[in-house]
Amino acid sequence: MKQYLDLVKDILKNGESRDDRTNTGTISKFGTQTRYDLREGFPLLTTKKVFFKAVVHEILWFIKGDTNIKYLVDNDVKIWNEWPYEIFKKSQDYHGETLEEFVLKIKTDDQFAQKYGELGPVYGKQWRDFNGKDQLKDLINDLKVNPYSRRHIISAWNPAEVDKMALPPCHSLFQFYVSKDGFLDLQLYQRSGDVFLGVPFNIASYSLLLMLVALECGLKPRYFVHTIGDAHIYSNHIEQLNLQLTREPKHLPTLEINFENKTIFDIKYSDIVLKDYDPHPLIKGAVAV
């Protein structure tokens, strides 16, 4: 994944120092683009270990149209926990619970989870119910009946509902493209990208979505094109990224997906198997909320 390392180098060299909403501070560059060819392997970062289980569960969560973290918590996926916890801390029911205690209550108390596990109308809601329109179903149908259309677009950015979301969508719009020789490409526009923690995850997530939609439509996955508006490195991640830059990328893994007698809406975690993933060790970093 030399493309990712080149992105990091570009931001460190050409980005500007900026304050941000989290008061952490960033080095930021506006308007970046990288391209990943899935025919060369599945683009899961090898210069540090990426938690692929979370990638799969999150994309299945989006596809279901779910917006409550309980499904993720029940499957030991922690990537969304901080945002509803911050909302809970402002409620009258908060009595000093730690994040870990909050997550345990989500897991064991359905009524609590229903009330405090909700993120608002985030990605899954918009994919499956954007002002009453099921964008994902309509897009898949359009890919099948009118593959060369220039309108194969899904938007998670709904201006009428952004202020109701725990976190406005970072990966805000994506578009599919069908080539004349049967390949399917996907371009994501991401308004904001946390290059150390978020971007490796986003690359894998939308590459998996590309593979699933290609299987659904009888096409061959090819390019994932990643366009980022504000591509930023948090000040407390610079050391970690400099360590990654010393590591040599390894061979990319592959994915096996059991799609027999299934649709994209039937796929389960057990149907997706990561093969030959041999990354460098995990590098930890704090999430800026």
From TrEMBL:
Q: Where in the cell is it found?
A: Cytoplasm
The pathway that the record names for this protein is: Pyrimidine metabolism; dTTP biosynthesis
- Tell me the residue numbers annotated for binding (6R)-5,10-methylene-5,6,7,8-tetrahydrofolate: 194, 288
Tell me the subunit arrangement.
Homodimer.
Q: Which residues form the active site?
A: 170
Q: What is stated as this protein's family in its record?
A: Belongs to the thymidylate synthase family. Bacterial-type ThyA subfamily.
Q: Where is the Thymidylate synthase/dCMP hydroxymethylase domain?
A: 2-289
| PROSITE patterns, alphabetized | THYMIDYLATE_SYNTHASE
Entry protein name? Thymidylate synthase
Species per Swiss-Prot/TrEMBL record:
Spiroplasma culicicola AES-1
A biological process from GO? methylation
Q: Which residues cross the membrane?
A: none
